[in-house]
Amino acid sequence: MFFQYLLEVWKSLTRRRVRVFIQEKEYELLDAKSGNFSIITYNIAGLPQVISSAKTDRSSSIAHIGSLLNDFDITHIQEDFNYNYHLYQGGNLHPYRTISMGLAIFGDGLDSLSKYPLTNFKRIEWQNRTGSDRLTPKGFSHCTVHLAVGVAVDFYNIHANSQDHPRAAKARRANYIQLATYINKHSFGQAIVVAGDFNSHFAFSEDNLEEFMVKTQVQDSWIILEREHVIPTIDPLFLCIDIMDIDNQTESIDKIMFRSNQQITLIPKKYEVERDKFVDKYGEPLSDHWPVSVVFDWLLNE
């Protein structure tokens, strides 16, 4: 067991040095003018069992998660640290999967799985982090997903700074300014999807989600589908509910935002907090977050 751990440490160090992150595969694309895809974002609580806040066994739970993700076209994972082998080899069938950066401390925990080809994958560290967030190269990833011939969408997987005390919230606001600046430079004019653990609420006065949305021209799927385009107002006395008590009507810190462009229109059709699916045989959640999914229609503009 100890030697296996040393091997994983060596792999983590090597991946971080070489900066090779994606399994390259040859692919063929459909020639289509419209279609649909599903995306799910999931913080899988992949820290070592002894320090994990998830209730269930991590190796078996994450293997189960990997197999359940087969029902979704594109997956964004956060906290994929110590159990990536179980996630990928426990029954997952996605043909395109980013190569994990490895164990906690060495890795950023961000990985993407897709039934569509992924290219141009990059990892970017946050310039501002606080507390335990400094223990990993936490940040966001960026890749291009090819939905059909000539239909490419930029996807961002994020894990923002955690906690709500003033220093942590200040760092998180800086995260979103950094991300917006990056998107406006590297995805200028592109259709995009931004999905991940935002660690933010619209109603919390110390968060800057609306500013981020304005800067990048993205829209939030939950706001559109569950709140009829109405963004929650700032509440000076805001207290977030327990993350495991959320449902479709309450705001999750795990979000899926999007932007169309002149070529491609993205239309969110169904939003779901996946409370029923991602549980073990006793009904216990497989992580300390509920995953959030959205089904999108897409069409090429004439």
Characterise this structure:
The protein is α+β, with helices and mostly antiparallel strands and 302 residues long. It has a single domain, classed as Endonuclease/exonuclease/phosphatase (Deoxyribonuclease I, Chain A). The protein is built from 6 helices and 12 strands. A hairpin with a 2-residue loop joins β6 and β7. The protein is globular. It starts with a helix and ends with a strand.
Bin the strand percentage.
25-35%
Distance between the termini: 58 Å
Helix and strand composition category: alpha+beta
The count of strands amounts to 12
The tally of helices reads 6
CATH architecture: 4-Layer Sandwich
Fold-level CATH name: Deoxyribonuclease I, Chain A
- Average pLDDT, rounded to a whole number, is 92
The overall number of domains is 1
Assign an overall shape: globular
Q: In terms of per-residue confidence, which ranges show pLDDT below 50 for 5 or more consecutive residues?
A: 1-6, 12-22
Helical residue percent?
10-25%
Task: Give the neighbour order of strands across the main sheet.
Answer: 3-4-2-1-12-11
CATH class term? Alpha Beta
CATH superfamily: Endonuclease/exonuclease/phosphatase
Order of helices and strands: HEHEHEEEEEHEHEHEEE
Backbone CA Rg: 18 Å
Main sheet specs? 6 strands, mixed
Keywords for this entry:
6-stranded mixed β-sheet; 302 residues; Deoxyribonuclease I, Chain A; disordered N terminus; alpha+beta; 23% helix
